[in-house]
């Protein structure tokens, strides 16, 4: 029998209208606050970037948003097709830059590199392109990592985890699906298996070993409700599953923080000099 608290969690309904209003206002305010009016983001064909593109188009106007498509030669053709669908659906501007040449040139000198190394290199190459286009277009880089990925460390530091602002960083993956569906993101994109498409056949859930539905429910009680290990097991979560997710969250803490700075002065950045990002603006 499912614990009553977990039944309550599963019966919750997201206020998508309020969430849409808050996130659209967030993008508009944060982009204009730094003296810009444009935004740039990587469009992968997945639901996260599709939702951010949709929110940004509504916040800034589609003509002020540029989606960059950055396939590698082994990328699934469906990802590129879905990314093109996002561009057409939102009406944003777009640019296609194939990253195969620079990736292959680098790994020609490192032929024994693992799939993980290659995936990380691609993620960082894509982010370097986004920041270059940011400078060229006078546009702020929008992040597309969701809260589930950020807690699990399921992303590449200085790669897809980087951004100037992240509209969906406080939304769990299941909430991203709900908001995307409510905002009219095409069902073919909302419903497909999530994948970073870093290597052939990769899917997020097969790599993680659990589904987003399962882990979002656990993270709700672990993070939002601050339940301890024993309390989570009492709710009916498998002990091994709880331990696995706890390890992922703690092991990836460094990805959610600025680099650790050795403190040798009276006022050190991140230790004592801790003003908001928009300090004095």
Structure overview:
The protein is of the alpha/beta class. Helices cover 51% and strands 6% of the residues. It has 13 helices and 4 strands. It has helices at residues 4-11, 16-33, 47-60, 77-90, 100-107, 115-137, 147-152, 173-182, 187-190, 204-208, 212-224, 229-234, 239-251, and strands spanning 38-42, 65-69, 93-96, 139-141. A 4-stranded parallel sheet has the order 3-2-1-4, with helices on both faces. Helix 2 crosses helix 3 (47-60) and helix 3 (47-60) packs parallel to helix 4. The radius of gyration is 20 Å and the shape is globular. The mean pLDDT is 95.
How large is the radius of gyration? 20 Å
Q: Please indicate the percent range of residues in DSSP E strands (runs of 2 or more).
A: 5-15%
Question: How many strands appear in the DSSP assignment?
Answer: 4
Distance from first to last alpha carbon: 54 Å
Helix content: 40-55%
Order of helices and strands: HHEHEHEHHEHHHHHHH
Number of helices: 13
Structural class: alpha/beta
User: What's the mean pLDDT score?
Assistant: 95
Question: Going across the major beta sheet, what is the strand order?
Answer: 3-2-1-4
What does the secondary structure layout of this molecule look like, with pairings?
Elements: H1 4-11, H2 16-33, E1 38-42, H3 47-60, E2 65-69, H4 77-90, E3 93-96, H5 100-107, H6 115-137, E4 139-141, H7 147-152, H8 173-182, H9 187-190, H10 204-208, H11 212-224, H12 229-234, H13 239-251
Parallel strand pairs: 1-2, 1-4, 2-3
Helix pairs in contact: 2-3, 3-4, 3-8
């Amino acid at each position: 029998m499912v614990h009553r608290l977990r039944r309550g969690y599963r019966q919750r309904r997201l206020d998508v209208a309020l969430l849409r209003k808050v996130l659209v206002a967030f993008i508009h305010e944060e982009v204009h606050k730094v003296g810009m009016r444009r935004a740039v983001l990587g469009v992968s064909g997945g639901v996260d970037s599709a939702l951010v593109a949709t929110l940004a188009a509504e916040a800034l106007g589609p003509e002020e948003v540029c989606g960059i498509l950055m396939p590698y030669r082994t990328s699934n053709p469906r990802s590129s097709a879905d990314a093109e669908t996002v561009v057409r659906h939102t009406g944003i501007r777009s640019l296609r830059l194939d990253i195969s040449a620079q990736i292959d040139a680098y790994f020609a000198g490192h032929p024994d590199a693992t799939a993980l190394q290659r995936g990380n290199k691609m993620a960082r190459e894509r982010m370097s392109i986004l920041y270059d286009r940011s400078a060229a277009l006078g546009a702020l880089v929008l992040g597309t990592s969701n809260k589930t990925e950020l807690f699990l460390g399921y992303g590449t530091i200085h790669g897809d985890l980087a951004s100037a602002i992240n509209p969906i960083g406080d939304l769990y993956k299941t909430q991203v699906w709900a908001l995307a569906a409510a905002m009219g993101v095409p069902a073919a994109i909302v419903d497909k298996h999530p994948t970073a498409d870093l290597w052939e056949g990769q899917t997020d859930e097969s790599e993680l070993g659990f589904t987003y539905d399962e882990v979002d429910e656990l993270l709700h009680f672990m993070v939002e409700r601050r339940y301890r290990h024993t309390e989570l097991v009492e709710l009916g979560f498998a002990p091994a599953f709880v331990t696995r997710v706890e390890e992922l969250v703690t092991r990836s803490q460094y990805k959610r923080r600025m680099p650790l700075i050795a403190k040798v002065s009276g006022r050190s950045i991140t230790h004592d000099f801790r003003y908001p990002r928009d300090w004095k603006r």
